[in-house]
């Protein structure tokens, strides 16, 4: 039985356990739910948890340890001279054994010992799958039996089920927090390695970015310049242009749809506007490179301006179009959430609709609007594909939107591809850039939170 079928059977047993537990509770209470400590459904949930939870935990632990144990057993059966290879060679060997066992193409197939190892690997995998299937199904059936046997009228299943739900919710929160901590620590440790090779002062205040490290001692022109100022300048320039497009258009769209548009127009226009959020960024990149950039270049030429084929202006404008739905949709929801009593009070004092919007609704909805703008700014800062296709890869320190620039995210992608050694300064620079970008985003969140708290104190 494959892993998919195993989980389908486990789900079926869990559902069956729910109905068995519910039916048994009702039968014990002689069909009168008021005679039970908890509602009948909680007895079903109680049996379902006994069925599914232990089996699921065991299967996850089994899967997490299965690969390492099988590989160790396979390697232990190989000749000693092969087992004593370095880690990279052993990794390639394991990959060949797996490919042979699954019928895929391997880099070497002429050694008899390799064929035997592949057969051994396949036998161990099949044995492990059969054992796992038996253990998981036995645990599930035993859980149903135990849970059903434990049911009686005074059993507080609601308390026990809700306790398990709270534990699951806590674990989900812990996973999110630990993931964030792991990301930050991985960036921090690799950045420390980078700053051991490059001075932090040169990185933070350097005005030239050319991360070409030498691969040979006699290589010329590869000293490496890691000044990140041009990258952050390009990121801020493109993001600023994007927000200049998205903020007014998105906010005005939200005000129109929430305050002026008839319900029929709103129900038609809002979904059409939100389609922009579902278009892949590579499509926006093609649009920027093939349509918007040539248009700006020709427009600039007709007015006597020199606009590069790859410019911050083209990338920023298209990026602004892309993030309009983030501003308009969230701002519309926030404006709609402003209590009608505030509008009625303003109208009662003699204010017009436009005055009510400017002086009452917008200030009351400002925390949510700031949140939507922050989300849009974060989306703009993290965009990569549009910048690659429309703004280029040149790390130019300029405030001229007509010239080609690049961003931090584009350089992170560029640094992590290719044949460069992972512990070189060129590759480690990507983690330093990521760490700096993290602090920039954190600063934006702190500023937004200060604005939100200020106006919440005023209007709540």
Explain how this protein is built.
With 460 residues, this protein is mostly helical. It folds into two domains: 3-155, no CATH class; 225-459, MetI-like fold (Orthogonal Bundle), CATH 1.10.3720.10. The protein has 17 helices and two strands. It has helices spanning 3-28, 40-76, 80-83, 87-102, 112-150, 157-197, 200-205, 229-260, 263-274, 281-302, 312-322, 324-336, 340-348, 353-381, 385-390, 408-415, 425-459, and strands spanning 209-210, 225-226. It has a two-stranded antiparallel sheet with strand order 1-2. Helix 1 (3-28) runs parallel beside helix 5 (112-150) and helix 14 packs antiparallel against helix 17. The two termini are 59 Å apart.
Keywords:
2 domains, flat, 17 helices, 2 strands, two-stranded antiparallel ribbon, 460 residues, MetI-like fold, mainly alpha, 1% strand
Order of helices and strands: HHHHHHHEEHHHHHHHHHH
The end-to-end distance, rounded to whole angstroms, is 59 Å
Question: How many helical stretches?
Answer: 17
Give the uncertain stretches in residue-range form: 217-222
How much helicity do the residues have? over 70%
| Estimated structural class | mainly alpha
Query: Major sheet: order of its strands?
Result: 1-2
Portion in beta strands: under 5%
Rg of Cα set: 31 Å
Query: Rough shape?
Result: flat
CATH class of the largest domain: Mainly Alpha
**How would you state the average pLDDT, rounded?**
82
Tally of discrete structural domains: 2
Strand runs, count = 2
CATH superfamily of the largest domain: MetI-like
CATH fold topology of the largest domain: MetI-like fold
């Amino acid at each position: 039985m494959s892993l998919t079928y195993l989980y389908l059977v486990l789900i079926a047993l869990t559902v069956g356990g729910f109905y068995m537990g519910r039916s048994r509770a009702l039968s014990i209470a002689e069909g009168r739910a008021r005679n039970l400590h908890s509602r009948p459904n909680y007895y079903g949930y109680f049996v379902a948890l006994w069925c599914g939870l232990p089996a699921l935990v065991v299967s996850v632990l089994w899967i997490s340890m299965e690969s390492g144990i099988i590989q160790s057993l396979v390697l232990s059966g190989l000749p000693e001279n092969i087992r004593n290879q370095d880690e990279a060679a052993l990794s390639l060997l394991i990959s060949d054994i797996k490919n042979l066992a699954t019928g895929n193409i391997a880099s070497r197939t002429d050694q008899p010992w390799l064929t035997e190892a592949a057969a051994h690997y396949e036998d161990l995998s099949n044995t492990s799958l059969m054992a796992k299937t038996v253990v998981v199904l036995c645990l599930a059936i035993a859980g149903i039996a135990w849970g059903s046997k434990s049911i009686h009228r005074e059993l507080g299943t609601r308390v026990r089920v809700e306790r398990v739900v709270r534990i699951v919710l806590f674990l989900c929160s812990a996973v999110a927090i630990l993931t964030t901590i792991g990301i930050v620590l991985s960036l921090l440790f690799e950045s420390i390695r980078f700053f051991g090779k490059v001075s932090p002062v040169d990185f933070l205040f350097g005005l030239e970015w050319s991360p070409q490290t030498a691969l040979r001692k006699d290589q010329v022109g590869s000293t490496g310049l890691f000044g990140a100022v041009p990258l952050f300048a390009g990121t801020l320039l493109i993001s600023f242009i994007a927000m200049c497009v998205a903020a007014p258009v998105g906010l005005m769209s939200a005000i129109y749809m929430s305050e002026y548009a008839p319900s029929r127009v709103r129900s038609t226009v809002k979904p059409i506007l939100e389609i922009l959020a579902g278009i892949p960024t590579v499509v926006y990149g093609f649009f920027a490179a093939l349509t918007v950039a040539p248009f700006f270049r020709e427009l600039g030429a007709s007015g006597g301006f020199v606009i590069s084929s790859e410019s911050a202006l083209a990338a920023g404008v298209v990026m602004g179009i892309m993030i309009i739905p983030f501003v308009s949709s969230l701002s519309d929801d926030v404006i709609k959430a402003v209590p009608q009593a505030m509008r009625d009070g303003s109208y009662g004092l003699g204010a017009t609709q436009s005055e009510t919007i400017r002086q009452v609704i917008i200030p009351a909805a400002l925390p949510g609007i700031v949140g939507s703008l922050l989300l849009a700014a974060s989306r703009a800062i993290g965009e990569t594909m549009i910048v690659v296709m429309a703004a280029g890869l040149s790390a130019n320190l300029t405030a001229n939107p007509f010239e080609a620039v690049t961003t931090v995210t584009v350089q992170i992608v560029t640094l992590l591809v290719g044949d460069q050694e992972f512990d070189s300064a060129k590759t480690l620079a990507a983690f330093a850039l990521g760490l700096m970008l993290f602090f920039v985003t954190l600063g934006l969140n702190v500023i937004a939170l200060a604005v939100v708290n200020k106006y919440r104190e005023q209007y709540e």
